[in-house]
Design brief:
This protein has 359 residues and is of the alpha+beta class. Helix content is 25%, strand content 39%. The chain folds into two domains: 1-182, no CATH class; 213-349, no CATH class. The chain contains six helices and 16 strands. It has a 16-stranded mixed sheet that branches.
Length: 359
C-alpha cells in the first residue's frame, strides 16, 4: 500500500514538474523569438531593424510580430525605410493535405518609404539588402501565400525644385500559390491581385499571373491607373519640360508579358482636357508663356477630333529583354497622329498580349 502511495506521489510530482517546465518555456518563448528576430534585423547591410513584441499561436503554428521598424544607417531621411505594425507568419494548413509544408505571410498596414537625393545620405531604396534571405530567416519554410492589407508606399525626391512627393496608399494585394502547390501544369500558376489609390487622385488595379519559382520569374500582367489628376504632376513637368499643367486628367493602361527574360507589351496613356496655357496665370516669365502657348497649340493638333471630349492618347510599345527594354519611338509618334485624325483608342485593356504567343 505504501509503495502505491509513493508511486502516485512521484507521478504527480513529475506531472507538476513537467507542466511547470512547459509553462516556463511558453513564457520564455516570446522573448527568445524577439531576441532572434532582432538579431536577424540588426545584421542588415546598411540598415538596422528591430521589433517590439511577439505573440505565439502554437495551436496553428504561427507567430505574430508587432512594430517592426527598419531604418537606414547614417541617413538624413527622417522616415523609416520600412514600418510594419503587424506581421503574421504561419503554416498554411490546407497545403499540408496536398503534401506540401509551406507558409503564409500577412502584413497589416505596412509603410515603405523610398527616398532619392544628391548624396547617399538622402538615398533610401533598400537595394543593398537581400530581402529574400531576411524573409527566409524569419520564416524557415517556403512561403506560398503573401498578403498585404492597407499598405502605403511613398516616394520622395529632394533633387528636384520643388521636391517631388508621391504616395500610393490603401494598397491591398495577394500573391497565391507561390510554391506551385496547386495547378502544377499551369506555366503561370501564381495569381496576383493588387489595388490601391495614389496621391495624384487616381486608383490603380493590377491583375497578373506568374511563375515565381523560376530563377527569373515569368509574368503576364494587366495594369489600369485611372483618374489621375495631371495638375499634381507639376513638380515633374516643371523639372522635365519647364511647363505648368493648368488642368487635365490621365488614365494609363498597360499589358506586359515576360517569358525567359524576353519582354513584350505596351503602355497606353490617355489624357483628357489637358491644358498648359491660361492668359490669367501670374508669376510666369515671357519665355514660359511662349513655351506653354506653343505646347497648347501642339496639344490641339493631337487631340481627338471624332468626339466632343478633348482626348490625347498614344500607345507606346515595349520590346526587348529585361536588361534592355526599348520603346518604339516612331511607332509612338505614328500612333499619336493616327489617334488624332483617324480613330479613337479604346479606353480599355486591349487584351492582345497572351502568354501562348511568340515573343
Amino acid at each position: 500500500m505504501m509503495d502505491t502511495v509513493k508511486k502516485r506521489w512521484f507521478k504527480k510530482r513529475y506531472l507538476f514538474l513537467t507542466i511547470a517546465i512547459l509553462v516556463a518555456i511558453r513564457i520564455a518563448l516570446p522573448y527568445i523569438v524577439v531576441n532572434y528576430v532582432n538579431r536577424v534585423l540588426s545584421d542588415l547591410d546598411g540598415y538596422t531593424g528591430k521589433i517590439e513584441e511577439v505573440d505565439l499561436f502554437l495551436f496553428r503554428g504561427a507567430y505574430r510580430i508587432y512594430e517592426m521598424r527598419i531604418d537606414k544607417n547614417e541617413s538624413e531621411v527622417k522616415e523609416p525605410f520600412l514600418l510594419i505594425p503587424e506581421a503574421d507568419l504561419s503554416i498554411e494548413w490546407p497545403a499540408i493535405f496536398k503534401g506540401a509544408i509551406v507558409g503564409e505571410v500577412k502584413l497589416k498596414e505596412p509603410v515603405l518609404n523610398f527616398a532619392f537625393g544628391p548624396t547617399d545620405a538622402y538615398i533610401q531604396t533598400g537595394q543593398e539588402v537581400d530581402w529574400v534571405q531576411i524573409v527566409q530567416d524569419l520564416m524557415p519554410i517556403s512561403i506560398n501565400t503573401f498578403e498585404v492589407e492597407n499598405a502605403t508606399v511613398s516616394l520622395a525626391n529632394i533633387t528636384t525644385r520643388p521636391t517631388i512627393d508621391a504616395a500610393f496608399d490603401n494598397i491591398n494585394g495577394t500573391i497565391l500559390n507561390i510554391r506551385n502547390v496547386e495547378n502544377k501544369e499551369d506555366p503561370l500558376p501564381s495569381p496576383i491581385k493588387l489595388t490601391g489609390n495614389t496621391s495624384y487622385s487616381g486608383n490603380i488595379n493590377v491583375t497578373a499571373k506568374a511563375n515565381l519559382i523560376k530563377e527569373f520569374p515569368d509574368i503576364n500582367y494587366d495594369l489600369r491607373a485611372e483618374g489621375l489628376d495631371l495638375t499634381k504632376f507639376n513638380a515633374i513637368s516643371k523639372e522635365v519640360a519647364g511647363l505648368t499643367i493648368e488642368k487635365g486628367s490621365l488614365n494609363v493602361y498597360s499589358e506586359m508579358l515576360i517569358d525567359d527574360n524576353k519582354l513584350k507589351g505596351y503602355v497606353k496613356p490617355l489624357m483628357y482636357d489637358l491644358q498648359f496655357f491660361t492668359w490669367k496665370e501670374k508669376d510666369r516669365s515671357l519665355g514660359e508663356a511662349i513655351k506653354e502657348l506653343f505646347t497648347e497649340v501642339a496639344q490641339e493638333l493631337v487631340e481627338n477630333r471624332r468626339t466632343n471630349e478633348e482626348l490625347t492618347a498614344t500607345k507606346i510599345p515595349l520590346t526587348g529583354n529585361i536588361e534592355n527594354v526599348k520603346s518604339g519611338v516612331w511607332a509612338t509618334i505614328t500612333n499619336t497622329l493616327v489617334n488624332a485624325y483617324v480613330r479613337t483608342f479604346q479606353k480599355v485593356i486591349d487584351g492582345d498580349i497572351d502568354w501562348n504567343e511568340e515573343i
